[in-house]
């Protein structure tokens, strides 16, 4: 029991659990429940993600990285809903209570959570194989919530940032592959430190017809939009945004990785052609690369220039 007290105190004393200056959080860590006042005119959106050691991240990874990435990947869902980050809870299962590990894990979470105003308000701690569950919550206006189901025929299909780096990084992160130090640093960060597109999501929510974050691979995730919207899509392989680093390193597979690899946490959205100028203005102001990769069609799913099986990250 004492060890759980210790765990609680590590989280409770973190900057990311400090409720000062937050009118919406009436009670944070420490009571039987947290208590939140949802701001006037807003709705609550929330999403849960679970990460299991050895499955979603390698054994013996740096707890600082695990913490950062756990928040980043979960918060990416808020970005896709155009929501403002508000608070989160943490379900932590770990084999033993290791204060040093916990302090670093908390620091990694706080590194991202604190500056975006995502407050840790509670959680649960149990003993077992290392498993991290986060439930993140955000605020968004009811009428301005982008869904997967509202894509329309003729919409442009957009992707932010570049795709494929994180999938290419997996064998580096697991230690199966060794590369030069400079390349290692770049790709290591691309796996462990995704940049959830929160500001872009909030800025774009009024303009887009549909939106999601790309976590399981573009091909698979875009099909979530087409299925939910009852439409099709046609994209061009050669138009997918790929980083110079990936093209240099893996010229032959860069575009396939961009199409099918997971873990990028970029936004994919559709919008009417009439919104092109506004979208360009928004993304340029944010210095966020944003690429039109194709168009929403009546039916089917076509990737021009791609021969092969369309896969994606299958969890089981
Ligand atoms: P209870 O027995 O009433 O369920 P706990 O002893 O599990 O309460 O937790 C006490 C407080 O510590 C609660 O506010 C809970 O939200 C918080 N807490 C426990 N584990 C965590 C965790 N992993 N992260 C954040 N807060 C936690
Ligand atoms: Mg209780």
From TrEMBL:
<feature type="binding site">
    <location>
        <position position="32"/>
    </location>
    <ligand>
        <name>Mg(2+) 3</name>
    </ligand>
</feature>
<feature type="binding site">
    <location>
        <position position="49"/>
    </location>
    <ligand>
        <name>Mg(2+) 2</name>
    </ligand>
</feature>
<feature type="binding site">
    <location>
        <position position="47"/>
    </location>
    <ligand>
        <name>Mg(2+) 4</name>
    </ligand>
</feature>
<keyword id="KW-0460">Magnesium</keyword>
<feature type="binding site">
    <location>
        <position position="148"/>
    </location>
    <ligand>
        <name>ATP</name>
    </ligand>
</feature>
<feature type="domain" description="PurM-like N-terminal">
    <location>
        <begin position="30"/>
        <end position="140"/>
    </location>
</feature>
<keyword id="KW-0784">Thiamine biosynthesis</keyword>
<feature type="binding site">
    <location>
        <position position="77"/>
    </location>
    <ligand>
        <name>Mg(2+) 3</name>
    </ligand>
</feature>
<feature type="binding site">
    <location>
        <begin position="123"/>
        <end position="124"/>
    </location>
    <ligand>
        <name>ATP</name>
    </ligand>
</feature>
<feature type="binding site">
    <location>
        <position position="313"/>
    </location>
    <ligand>
        <name>substrate</name>
    </ligand>
</feature>
<feature type="binding site">
    <location>
        <position position="77"/>
    </location>
    <ligand>
        <name>Mg(2+) 4</name>
    </ligand>
</feature>
<dbReference type="InterPro" id="IPR036676">
    <property type="entry name" value="PurM-like_C_sf"/>
</dbReference>
<feature type="binding site">
    <location>
        <position position="77"/>
    </location>
    <ligand>
        <name>Mg(2+) 2</name>
    </ligand>
</feature>
<feature type="binding site">
    <location>
        <position position="216"/>
    </location>
    <ligand>
        <name>Mg(2+) 5</name>
    </ligand>
</feature>
<feature type="binding site">
    <location>
        <position position="213"/>
    </location>
    <ligand>
        <name>Mg(2+) 3</name>
    </ligand>
</feature>
<feature type="domain" description="PurM-like C-terminal">
    <location>
        <begin position="152"/>
        <end position="300"/>
    </location>
</feature>
<dbReference type="Pfam" id="PF02769">
    <property type="entry name" value="AIRS_C"/>
</dbReference>
<feature type="binding site">
    <location>
        <position position="124"/>
    </location>
    <ligand>
        <name>Mg(2+) 1</name>
    </ligand>
</feature>
<feature type="binding site">
    <location>
        <position position="56"/>
    </location>
    <ligand>
        <name>substrate</name>
    </ligand>
</feature>
<dbReference type="InterPro" id="IPR016188">
    <property type="entry name" value="PurM-like_N"/>
</dbReference>
<comment type="function">
    <text>Catalyzes the ATP-dependent phosphorylation of thiamine-monophosphate (TMP) to form thiamine-pyrophosphate (TPP), the active form of vitamin B1.</text>
</comment>
<keyword id="KW-0808">Transferase</keyword>
<feature type="binding site">
    <location>
        <position position="215"/>
    </location>
    <ligand>
        <name>ATP</name>
    </ligand>
</feature>
<feature type="binding site">
    <location>
        <position position="49"/>
    </location>
    <ligand>
        <name>Mg(2+) 1</name>
    </ligand>
</feature>
<dbReference type="InterPro" id="IPR006283">
    <property type="entry name" value="ThiL-like"/>
</dbReference>
<feature type="binding site">
    <location>
        <position position="32"/>
    </location>
    <ligand>
        <name>Mg(2+) 4</name>
    </ligand>
</feature>
<keyword id="KW-0067">ATP-binding</keyword>
<dbReference type="InterPro" id="IPR036921">
    <property type="entry name" value="PurM-like_N_sf"/>
</dbReference>
<comment type="similarity">
    <text>Belongs to the thiamine-monophosphate kinase family.</text>
</comment>
<comment type="pathway">
    <text>Cofactor biosynthesis; thiamine diphosphate biosynthesis; thiamine diphosphate from thiamine phosphate: step 1/1.</text>
</comment>
<dbReference type="GO" id="GO:0009030">
    <property type="term" value="F:thiamine-phosphate kinase activity"/>
</dbReference>
<dbReference type="InterPro" id="IPR010918">
    <property type="entry name" value="PurM-like_C_dom"/>
</dbReference>
<protein>
    <recommendedName>
        <fullName>Thiamine-monophosphate kinase</fullName>
        <ecNumber>2.7.4.16</ecNumber>
    </recommendedName>
</protein>
<dbReference type="Pfam" id="PF00586">
    <property type="entry name" value="AIRS"/>
</dbReference>
<keyword id="KW-0547">Nucleotide-binding</keyword>
<feature type="binding site">
    <location>
        <position position="263"/>
    </location>
    <ligand>
        <name>substrate</name>
    </ligand>
</feature>
<keyword id="KW-0418">Kinase</keyword>
<keyword id="KW-0479">Metal-binding</keyword>
